[in-house]
## 1
Amino acid sequence: MTEEIQQIISQVDKVIQQKGNTKKALIPILQAIQDEYNYLPEEALRHVCDTTEITPENITGVASFYSQFRMKKAGQHLIKVCVGTACHVKGAGQVYDAFKRHFNLTGDEETDAEGNYTLEKVSCLGCCTLAPVVQVDDVTYGHVTTDKVDSVLQDFESQVGKTGKKSKYRNADGSEFQGEIRIGLGSCCVASGSDEVKKEIEQTIEGTGINLQLKNVGCVGMCHQVPLVEVIDENKKSKLYAKVKPNEVADIIHEHFKPKGLIDRLRSNTFHWLEKMQTDTVWEGVDRYAIDVRDEMVSSFLDRQLPIATEHRGVLNPLDMDEYRSFGGFDALKRILQTDRHDVIRMVKDSGLRGRGGAGFLTGLKWELVEKEKAEKKYLICNGDEGDPGAFMDRMLLESYPYRVIEGMLIAAWAVQATDGYFYIRAEYPLAVTRIRQALINCREQNLVGKNILGSDFSFDIQIYEGAGAFVCGEETALMASIEGNRGFPTIRPPFPAHKGLWGFPTLINNTETFAQVSYIIRNGESRFSEIGTENSKGTKVFSLTGKVNRGGLIEVPMGITIRQIVEEIGGGVQNGKQFKAVQVGGPSGGCIPASLYDTPIDYHSLLEVGAMMGSGGLVVLDEDDCMVDIARYFLSFTQNESCGKCTFCRVGTKRMLDILNRITSGKGTKKDLEELKYLAEWTRKGSLCNLGKSAPNPIVTTLRYFYEEYEAHIEGRCPTGKCTAMITYSINDECIGCTKCAQKCPVDAIKFEPHKKHSVNTELCIKCDACRQVCPVDAVEVV
Amino acid sequence: MIKLTINSQPITVPEGTTLLEAARTLQIDIPTMCHLEGTGHFTSCMVCLVKDTRNGRLMASCSMPAMEGMNIITDDDECRESRKASLELLLSEHVGDCEAPCQLVCPAHMNIPLMNRLIAAGNHDKAIEVVKRDIALPAILGRICPAPCEAGCRRKQVDEAVSICLLKGFSADQELEKGVTPVQPKEQSGKKVAIIGAGPAGLAAAFYLNKAGHQVTIFEKNEKAGGDLFQIEESVLPAKVMEAEFSAILNSDIKTHFNVEVDQQRLEQLQQENDAVVLATGAINGQLKGWGISLSKTGVEVNKDTYQTSIDKVFAIGNALRSSKLAVRSVGQGKEVAFVIDQYFKTKEVKPYPSRFNSKFGKLQETEFVEYLKESVDEKRLEATRGKAVGFTMEEAVAEAKRCLHCDCRNPESCKLRELSDIYGAQQKRFQYDERFKVEKEFAPQNIVYESAKCIKCGICVRITQQYQETFGFSFIGRGFDVKVGVPFSESVEKALEKTAALVAEKCPTGALAKTNTEEQLK
């Protein structure tokens, strides 16, 4: 036995001692091994089989099922390019390709020749407002573009080995984020002279070393105040200046920013700004969480909102239990411990609360079903396996309101007489896991979790189960299979979990957000909750608003609010003054709602009617530049990848639909393909075993329904938005000033370096990476 | 107890009974593939979908428990369409041939790989039996056939085609040398068939009709049987080979009338005296004009699937339809028309010669040669050293037969995917948009072969090896479309199946896990 293998074996022994030697310890064991080795060495897996009840079949099936696990040795550092929906529409695919080129990776290669970096796509990091996002080990870079690959890596390498506190979230050019100035470029703003103001700002900051991002935003809606200038300083404070004149610019800037060199001193200030995690572009990292009161700027963002799951947002320190209590935290728990549990269930039922995970099953009814079951054990699971690309509600709730979720779980557990609880949290959310872990420790100390809670005869403990990367595990039967140490294969229902769930015991599974709304209902009474919303959809819904919207972020709105209100009033409209085209609701299971249905109210019924569904609550705004066929293709490639592979319709059906969409987006589609696409969409919906497959065709069905002419255009050989690379060519027009920037950027020398001359693109060599267009200072690069 | 109705029949079943079990107690058949009694349900293939008419929902009957008040339909258009759709999806990723390309190319559809295996194993009696199921004149064709089968032979891609034609001739010669036992039909049907013409087509039809127990009479204008074959040179086709093969056929209950020219009047008479008439006259050159038979540009007009002419009970085959130099086609048509007529006698209906569903994947990729060579030998193609007219020696034949790649599936009869594709009219090519999976073959003791590209991921082998606590067993590997069934830690199939090899091969619903020596088509 070599020394290396011996080392592995003793390491594995340690892991097993910690995690246990039963089947249910399998995923935690694999996670621990991968933590150690960066991949799963076969010797380690064999040794697990030799010393536990886990079989080779079991371990191989599980290790190869979850995307978190790697069977091949990875590079020293891991680069994860987020390809979630928000990142996708902002060019994540091209960013990924740029990294691939940088490391000279071909085909399926993932690791560079030196073994320094391994490049991976990841389905969603839940930082949608920073899109496109790239993570290098634990450092997250936002707004990454194809030409920023070098600077991201340079910055990362400059950080490697450095000790001490470092900012975990950085701008793509590697600089510490010093501030941002936003100038409205809506039509009113431009008309009132915002262009001149912009030039003045550029001149003012030049040479001062102040690292500012100057950003154009669309109409903020306050057109009577134009031009508007919003300044976000390094303390993440935002201030809005109305009716700005060019000669006021210098004063404004110096009010907020000091030339470089003083930064460190300033950084010692406590960070205080309300929406750093929750609004566009200023999310500065989740490990700093102090709060300030909003000013005017965010009021429009907040006015339309109604925080229940996110109650006291911007005020609560996530782990400060006293603070949570001071806002009435755990009052609901105390109260229900004195109440008949049937009354609690009735209250939840009467509140009209429906499951927030997507399907919208009446929560109280679910509780009642579990309560009625007689069993020696009952389980309760908080479903935090938010796999939707483009959604991060669960992450936000778990990170920011851990006690509220726990309280909701405790109330439910008491009502249904559950004995054991689980947090099932996605692997990609390490901070949520850390927070919940600490929150549970705090709760145990305070006798809120564990034996005889608050002196009652009610005992209930909660443990954390980390998912390992499988979207399908959001499906409750697959989720339970995963906790039991199996591949996340869904099974047919009935039996429903309420009857026969985890290890055959009655099990209550609710979504994180559902639990987060429970304490409000108990504290304020069911009618307070049911007054909010529409006839069939009560209360509020949390959404992550992302994509081409000015103010993306986590929002909580009353049911019945229209899409237009969300996008225009809360989101501040479409970015860069572009035309609103559609909003993608509900992720891979949802659909695209077009501009013609802008006034559709958000509730379970209305969304189904237009072909979408609530899903878990991702709202991705698409503008005129987004190709709807490409969007459909994007979601199909996601579901195809995430299909568990069990039933024929989902495993092969999603693949064949993707094949057809690939043909169409590469200009090879035919009329017949459209017919077959409809046929497959119909049968995948009707024939699949679980809801992943049944809802997988929704993005296709809705885009076919509302954007049929775009499909037709592709079949005729045109991509109207120029997104489908196989169907477009790049060229340079007469605006070219011969600055050579494009030639310098071109990774394949398709543009000849000719200073002061008009450049041109050699279309034979061009790989359509878009680097030239992005870098051109005069918009001379055209895509046709 | 639970009350429900299935296909309008009420039934009461204990709680926990699946819809499939309930239907089966009513003798209602629902197809399944991934289901295997005693291993728990898995719900993967989805060919067992049935509909609850109360809400129109489709559900997998193999695992859905019967529930109070259900009103189930198992076989309406929607259920059938769902099965066709799932089969077409499964077929789109199923890489394998039900029958070998050579057999599909052969106009007589002869089971070539099976013949090759039997010759290679020295089982020459069985080999000729297999040949004669499809080819009535193998000794003759073994010398004169242009062998379209060899154009289809996969071995041609690797080096050169297998000498199929010579092997067939060899088998026939073996039998002729020993002396052919005259055909003894099990029972006489009492039906009479007149065959006009004793060329390859007529003789073949006579051979199979006689074998099926019908009274056959041949009318031949020449003084002896053979037709166009007599134009072939002695050096290619020695007369004694011909005579031996003809007399082997005619040396039975078949009646022959030589030197009889059949005219229109005689034909009408034969129609009345017989239950069926077969025109195997050879090229007709217009002499049937005015007989009341529809003619096409090339000859007698027939229904391509049944060989029926425009006249009731009169069939036509061979060069009478279209002049061709391909005797093997005429011989094949003789077999097919005999089958059609036999079925007609039995069912009173003229039905097409059955064509079965065939999964096909076309050419091998270069990297796949090695997979197919695992079951073959790396030897050069042999020709008959004694000349084609004499044929292979025993050693040559055995050596050449071993060069066969055995492209055919080993479970052509028991494969449920094939059976259901036939029943539901599934089209394999419909959803084949992308590159196919690569063919891989792994052999294990007890004549086990595992071909992952044929796997439909039903998981039966995974469940069986789990149940029998194999050390390694099979496991699902990966997920989504790329999920594979394989052996953990890249161990061998042999290691995976220490206890369950035979069982797993038997239960696999396709030919993915099979025994190479089952020879289902020999039974």
## 2
Amino acid sequence: MHRRTLLTAAAIMALATPALAEWQPKRPMTMIIGFAAGGSTDIQGRVLARVLEEHFGQPVNVVNQPGGGGAVALTRFMNAEPDGHTFMFGVQLGLTFSPIVTQTEYDIDDFRYAGTLVGGQFGVVARGDAPYQSFEELVAYGQDNPMTYAQQLPMDETIMRLIADEEGIDLAIVPTGGGGGMAPLLLGGEVDFAFSGGTHAQYTPTGEMNVLAFLTRDRSPFYPDVPTLVELGYPYAMDDFRSFFLPGGTPDEIVQAFEDAARFAVEHPQFVEVTVDNTLHPIVFMDAEETEATIREIRAANEELMAN
Amino acid sequence: MNFDAVGAAAAEALTLASFIGIGGGVLLGYVVGVIPGLSRSVAISIAIPLTFYMSPYIAISFLIGLSKGTAAGSAVSAILLNAPGEASSAATALDGYPMAKQGKPKTALQIGLIASVLGDIMATIILIFVAIPFARVALLFGPYEMAAILMFALVFIAGLSGGSLFKGLAAGGLGIFLGTIGLDNQTGLPRLTFGYTELMDGLPLIAVAIGTLALSEMFVQSERLRYDRANMAVTLEHRPDDRITWPIMRRILPTIFRGTGVGTFVGALPGLGPSVGSFMSYGMAQRAAKEPERFGKGEPKGIAASESADNAVIPAALIPLFGLGIPGNVSAALLIGAFAIHGITVGPLLLRDNPELLYSIFAGMILASLIMLALGWFGLMVFAQITRVPPHVVIPIVVFFCLAGMMLQGYGTFGLVILLGFAILGYLMKKYDYSFVTFLVAFIITPMLELNLRQSIILSRGNWAILLDRPIALFFIACTVVALVMLAWRSIRTGKPPAGAPAD
């Protein structure tokens, strides 16, 4: 990820920077967050707002618009003034997943994408004292025993269903209704393994939970020894990144300014600290072009998955 | 227990900075609690950025103080205006408002405050000494147990309310129906959203609760202002007997103990929350009373039961949070975020890696309860003056706070429409004697009940025999059946609501 990123970043710098005048905000800015206060997106966003104040020299107000995993905020944000003073720091699921299962008023083409700052760490976890310590062992165990899995999104459910069919595992899948619901089910021994969007980070240091495999396309920098599903031979991936979104029709120079801001933030010790140390997410930088390409790629992959 | 750490913790808890921080939190929470329309979780999320500049200990104690303050403050508006500041104080209004109308508003407020503070302190002590080592007990309550408890809570609380059995079923059914709106939590497909993105997370609980509880009450009172002016306002004279006395105190103490127990149990189980706790406690107090027919007519035990449980839930919700890293309710989930901002991961590791901080927080929590007692005591003198303000001034102010609160929480015009819709629904329910309590509790419980029931059915693979290994679940299923049979039998036999059901 980083190598690719640096190359494209260098290319953009060489091509774009001299051509465009540096855009500057003229009044206080509004950063929209599609989740309630207190979640990891919100915490990262609030620190990011302070880093951006330093970068842009204008106050940045944070506005929470929770609902539908970011879909409510995107619906309202679609019609915001494309002058760079209102922008969104959000997860991509509202674009890569929501439009597949429900009719949203917006779609990918209604926004511009100005750079990615944070990566996801979707994984499959089991209890630390389970009789399987790796995904291969889990599969082998499942071929002899009926198993239960706690899902969070229809995508991870589909992936597990496909793998279970392929490997001949008798698998029952239960909903958890969100991140907080997984830990009691898994730690209480109600389910054999579960999806984790990041909850595992606070249970792996004590050995209460083990990450068996990552659903993401690349390995997590925090668990370099844990393989991805693709590496294990299952051609399925599920990814999500946190990026800057701007309303459609935003001029290139503003998109460029936010890309520079993203580049500034991922190097800023305060933002790195809150992301990596406190909310346990990897820093992943992508420029504007790569961000949009990634969103379209993930959307296509999800559509293919959900067609199953 | 590490006594060096405890000593250091106590020393940190007693600095001037911590007094100011915690006191500020309690005061802010108290005011938010009094104002209908501003809710606890919103207050916490707005206050989290304020804590950026505090030390971790003060920041966390500030936020916990804020939670405690809202639980105590919401009793004030419930008692004086019949418009509870939080859904969890709706049970307080059932006896608090009649008592205030009988010319004892101060006594009612004092009972509420003392029950709050005692419930709070006792639950905090349980949290410190008993709960953390035994937090794992909460894991015994899996989906089967939770589904059974939720079913029991639904039937039990429905049994409290007035009106005929069929009106009760209608109100509960409507709550269950509206509670199913939103994304299906397994397939992610929208249910009954009619294409509105805003409905994907369901009807916002805050709008539904404020609409049915507070705003609808303002409609009722406006009507009364027009047609029945003489009989509406709470009159506050300086009556020497309008204060809490030792005999009252002795009568309500057992109720407070029971309420604390119920609140601690409910709070320690992830997901149930303070509204379930306060209504369960109210119902149990009524069942246990010698004269249950006095409930709903200004019975001090009613206030004490509801408020002690409401406040006990707040420290108890920290049991699974500190013991297992699992938040017990929305406010506890927000606290995880606040901890994260200060670089602390909440969970079992906290006791091992950072015992001083944990003990400081405990000390801060006790301090918060004591500050709450002092602030509340002076506060109720001030707030009791609300009753001198004529209703035609109070009503528009409360309506303004309800509407402004919705806007503040980012729900926009959509939130206002929902709020108004439920205010009209609540008004009609009150007017035609359908229980809004049953409706609201059914609405709150349904999403959790659905999730746990679905989990149970899938995990059991349709095999009923699995319940035989689940004694706790079996016990609560039996309780549910007994409660149902009793409810049906009583309504059929007398054709009247169960004894002591509140009149409105």
